[in-house]
Amino acid sequence: MQGLTMTATPQAQCTLEVALGDRSYPIHIGPGLLGDPRWIAPHLAGKQVMIVTNSVVAPLYLERLKAGLADDLEVREVVLPDGEATKNLAHVERIWDALLEAGFNRRCTLIALGGGVIGDMTGFAAACYQRGVAFVQVPTTLLAQVDSSVGGKTGVNHPRGKNMLGAFWQPRAVLVDTDTLATLPPGELSAGLAEVIKYGLIRDADFLGWLEEAMPALRGLDVPALTQAIERSCAIKSAIVAEDETEQGVRALLNLGHTFGHAIEAHQGYGSWLHGEAVATGMLMAAALSARLGWLSGADVARVEAILEAAGLPRQAPSGMGSKAFLDHMRRDKKNLDHRLRLILLRSLGDACIYDETPLETLTALIEDFPRR
Amino acid sequence: MQGLTMTATPQAQCTLEVALGDRSYPIHIGPGLLGDPRWIAPHLAGKQVMIVTNSVVAPLYLERLKAGLADDLEVREVVLPDGEATKNLAHVERIWDALLEAGFNRRCTLIALGGGVIGDMTGFAAACYQRGVAFVQVPTTLLAQVDSSVGGKTGVNHPRGKNMLGAFWQPRAVLVDTDTLATLPPGELSAGLAEVIKYGLIRDADFLGWLEEAMPALRGLDVPALTQAIERSCAIKSAIVAEDETEQGVRALLNLGHTFGHAIEAHQGYGSWLHGEAVATGMLMAAALSARLGWLSGADVARVEAILEAAGLPRQAPSGMGSKAFLDHMRRDKKNLDHRLRLILLRSLGDACIYDETPLETLTALIEDFPRR
After folding, report:
1. Do A141 and A190 lie in a common domain?
2. Is B21 exposed, middle or buried (0-12, 13-18, 19+ CB in 10 A)?
3. Is residue A9 situated within a structural domain?
4. pLDDT for the residue numbered B355
5. Which residue of B has its CA nearest to A128?
6. d(CA B337, CA B196)
7. What is the DSSP string of A75-108?
8. Residue A146 gets which letter from DSSP?
């Protein structure tokens, strides 16, 4: 990692602050956080704690998390099935049922232990239980660590669209224990790297350059490199969220690749492609469209394709998914206003913009010309 | 209405402002608001409008409301069944399904046309649709006009408790068209008067005195008297909500009679007693308990009983509902923290307080001694 512009001496542990006035909260990043009582205790609202996790993460980390909770707490748990297909209202209702069965009051705290699906559902459950209770994010996937656990977006999918139901609800704290990445399947690590690359593409050309060099170390689970990538990603996301908590403007930039990506996920059925895989392909589509609009060069697009390949990510749309299928799903995107299609595109590498004037024929041609698997 | 301390010349139309910073909104009160385009148009977020109403209100007021909406709007409607028994997640899902079927985006506006149940469900649907969209309250019952449509509490019941799921979500505006009270059944008018009396009991002894004299006019649907009662009720509620939007403190005073009342509703099955009827009995129980604690005189309790009787409200608990049933339900109240029972009681008429030191034996004896139907 010579010649990089990032921190000269990588820190083993660091803390960022998400600045949102009286809803501000810390993100702690580093190894060994999970079983250490110092990190969770300050963020509990009362004595009642409900841990929400899934059947894959529970055997790996549930006991370690519980070991870090004080003996005088009333700790319960809900273990949900794994996967994006569970991200629906019926599973959030299971969390609510468990809270009511346990007689938990509005000073209880929910802890989300798992990936983005668990975090989004737990946050939504917390947002609406007795009109809002405390919750703490303990993300165990790279994707959740750099993206979904930060920023307060919570929710579930609806058969007619992804994340259609939800709330903005900020956690009391985010604990990123980098040790949890040791058990992450390589495909999910790559999916997380898609979002890391996204931060470089939308806001930070230096970080993008650093990532191009650091990619082998990241895929080899080098902890200082991972810590640094997570820290820079969370810092970029926090800054954008602090600027625009409820996505009235600049926050939409975080959706680079997501309009195309959500269409792929919806068309293929949620859970068939990993979210990060769909976003990776979507980012390449956004880059290629930006080139057709004259903003990026062919070399820029090739750089995007190369870093996605280095991260082990797909660069082709699903075979059999035509432009009509893409456009039908994209027209339902939450960013659209009064029937205008809004896309996040790249003015240059490291500088994204919101654009709603793409000619339909340019977009259609891009989708049709884009490589299929 | 001679000798009263209220407005000398009752206004036909008035506007109050709920002061909540960038979430502030107006409450317009008066006759003829429903079909007049001037009142709704300024509060619509975009061109898409979803009216949510029920099968009783729709035939009475839906067309009048629609007549006041401009021709270039995309107006849809959801007509739900009537009654408290419909206030559940399944019916909120019907609103979400309708929004998604119509392809409505995050700049749509929901309009709640109906009583408290419609307002609470529509507000909750708006709070969670695409993480929050605009909504306008058009309450058509006295109860909703003076209570549930003001203050941003939204939500639904759960089989294990009332209003257990929900969100704080403020409307863009509240339109109280007093003409709608002409079709309100007398029992529902009385139920609304219970909440009006509550404002006098918790904060305003003068208003209580005015109500004692004005009660025949109110029950006779005298429009200036009703307008004045609604205005003063909304003013007291707005002031309390502005002070404490998310019920960390003083807002809990609005729950006078509600802890007992919710227990009655839950025990009898939601919809069997009207909410206002249960609250009326609950307020008399709270007054009687306040007397046992030495704060109210017997004459004070008799005054409470007399004004409830004048309003046509019940003053007896359900036969067959013992102290155990009351206490079991009361222990699940959202106001309780860490297993302490918190009640709203009266230091004097016009001055309520939050109290969590009632000896269990005093409370149990009060419940057991209280008259049954």
Report:
1. no
2. exposed
3. no
4. 94
5. B166
6. 28
7. EEEEEEPPSGGG-SHHHHHHHHHHHHHTT--TT-
8. I
Quick one: A171 and A190 in the same domain?
no
| Contact (CB, 8 A) for A26 and A235 | no
Query: What's the CA gap between A8 and A10, in Å, rounded?
Result: 6
ipTM: 0.86
Contact (Cβ atoms closer than 8 angstroms) between residue A308 and residue A294: no
pLDDT-based confidence at residue B11 (cuts at 50, 70, 90): low
How far, in Å, CA of B134 to CA of B104, rounded? 12
**Does residue A15 sit within a domain?**
no
The nearest CA of chain B is from the CA of A332 a distance in Å of: 7
Per-residue pLDDT tens over the stretch A148-159: 888 899 999 998
Instruction: Please state, rounded to an integer, the average pLDDT across all residues of chain B.
Output: 92
Angstroms from A245 CA to nearest CA on chain B: 12
Question: A263: part of which helix (H) or strand (E)?
Answer: helix A258-268
Residue range A258-285: mean pLDDT, rounded: 92
At residue A341, what is the residue type?
Answer: L
Spatial distance between the Cα atoms of B113 and B118, rounded to a whole number of angstroms: 7
B105 labelled catalytic? no
Closest partner residue to B93 (CB to CB) among A89, A97, A132 is: A89
- Is B153 marked active-site? yes
Angle at A146 (CA atoms; ends A145, A150), nearest 5 degrees: 80
CATH of the domain at B286: 1.20.1090.10
For B269-290, the pLDDT digits (tens) are 867 898 899 999 999 999 999 9
3-state helix, strand, coil in chain A (%, to 5): 50, 20, 30
The pair of three-digit structure tokens given for residue B308, joined into one six-digit string: 């409830």
Q: How far is the CA of B307 from the CAs of B3, B197, B232, in angstroms?
A: 18, 8, 17
Q: Is B299 on the interface with A (CB under 8 A)?
A: no
Give CA torsion, residues B293, B299, B303, B306, to 10 deg: 110
Say how far apart CA A195 and CA A216 lie, in whole Å: 16
Q: Which domain holds residue B324?
A: 197-369
Q: How far is CA B86 from CA A128, A313, B12, B93, B171, in A?
A: 18, 48, 34, 12, 21
> Is B253 found in the same domain as B168?
no
Q: Choosing among A131, A158, A328, which should be mutated to test the B contact, i.e. which has the most B CBs within 10 A?
A: A131
Mean pLDDT of the region A13-23: 89
Distance CA A31, CA A42 (A): 19
Task: Indicate the number of domains in chain B.
Answer: 2
What confidence score (pLDDT) does residue B13 get? 81
Respond yes or no: is residue A275 known to be catalytic. yes
Are residues B333 and B227 located together in one domain of the fold? yes
Helix, strand and coil percent figures for chain B, each rounded to 5: 50, 20, 30
Structure tokens at B184: 């309100």
Render the burial of B75-95: b for 16+ CB within 10 Å, e for the rest: bbbbbbebebebbbbebbebb
Q: Does B107 touch chain A (CB under 8 A)?
A: yes
Please tell me whether residues A172 and A206 are part of one structural domain: no
What is the pLDDT averaged over residues B228-240? Answer: 95
Residues B143 and B255 in one domain: no
pLDDT value at residue B9: 47
- Mark whether A118 and A244 lie in a shared domain: no
Burial of A101 (0-12, 13-18, 19+ CB in 10 A): exposed
Same structural domain for residues B162 and B119? yes
Q: Letter for the amino acid at A305? A: E
On whether residue A129 sits in a domain, the answer given is: yes
Q: From the candidates B28, B43, B91, B153, which is the catalytic residue?
A: B153
Nearest CA distance, A350 vs chain B (angstrom): 28
